[in-house]
Amino acid sequence: MRSEEQVYNTILNFAKADERIPMVTLEGSRTNMKILPDDFQDFDITFFVTDMKSFITDDEWLNVFGERLIMQKPEDMELSQKLQLTQINPF
Fold first, then answer.
1. Which pLDDT belongs to residue 72?
2. Is the pLDDT of residue 81 over 70?
3. Quick one: residue 5, left, alpha or beta (phi over 0 = left, psi -120 to 50 = alpha)?
4. I need a labelling partner for 34 at 20 to 30 A (CA). Which of 28, 43, 46, 60 fits?
5. Contact, 30 vs 64, CB < 8 A?
6. What is the DSSP string of 71-87?
């Protein structure tokens, strides 16, 4: 298993190497000093990107972070698809 520092370095190096990622943020329990660290804390990361479609259409970019055991993509879920169909364009 990778150390916390190795995970942070992987995330930051990936973002720095990709010009489509001008900013990356960390959210969640790791940012709250009142929460004691534990072995089950995950890394809640947001990549702010200039070309979202390129990340959505090709999942290969995720391989840099290691083997995926499970993957959930909200945009592929039934509820998300129903919501997209009901959105109204006011223009």
1. 82
2. no
3. alpha
4. 46
5. no
6. ---GGGSHHHHHHHHH-
